[in-house]
Amino acid sequence: MANKLTQQLKILASDVDYNIRLSYPDIFALFQNIAVANSEDLGYDQPKMTPKGLFWVTSKQKIRITKRPMQGDFVELTTWPEKPDRIRGRRNYLMTQNGETIIEGTSEWVIIDRNVNRLYMLDKIYDPSFEFYPGKMLPEPFHRFTSDFSGEPFAEYRVRSVDIDLEGHMNNVNYFRALFGLFSRKELEEMDVHEVECHYKVSCYEGDRLLWYKNQTEAGLEICAKLEDGTEIFLALLS
Hints:
With about 240 residues, this protein is α+β, with helices and mostly antiparallel strands. It folds into two domains: about 5-125, Hotdog Thioesterase (Thiol Ester Dehydrase, Chain A, Roll), CATH 3.10.129; about 155-239, Thiol Ester Dehydrase, Chain A (Roll).
């Protein structure tokens, strides 16, 4: 069984930002949607995992943008998981338009076994007939954050009911909706972001107040969301 999925998509009005281009958060939303569809095809989507006490956790994500498609454009989006090691796996994403690569992405994930409160061995979930597609997107190591994120926060965000998922914590995509909403249109145009990377540290929940810190580095703008007690929740690099 091959485990690569390709979808033909039209960029909708709900997918775009003020300049009618696919928004940064909606890139991650489309990636999340196709990853779920691929997991459903392969038989290990979250509704099938939950009764077993297993839960998918994305720990890191990264995208590289050559061009963001516009409302009404048709694109081809492909995803596939790499063959995992014992406890960590990676999933790859490729968006093309008229045969041209426009957005690449990768994510790192683990499975938590809540029955014993530890990481689950990933080789247990795959059928022996799975044929792992060999391609890798953005294979370089993930970024090492260097900022200590001290000082005063530049913004804050209160986690709302519309942000949370079936497990009660903030949905991965909504971190990006909150993050990019912290900047004005003018600031986003000046930043001209072509790469986004994030590390999910600890879950947050409805009602939590996130304090946001930023620091410009050689690699780009490092950003951190913390709880009021100083716990780091989410790290991002915009470049």
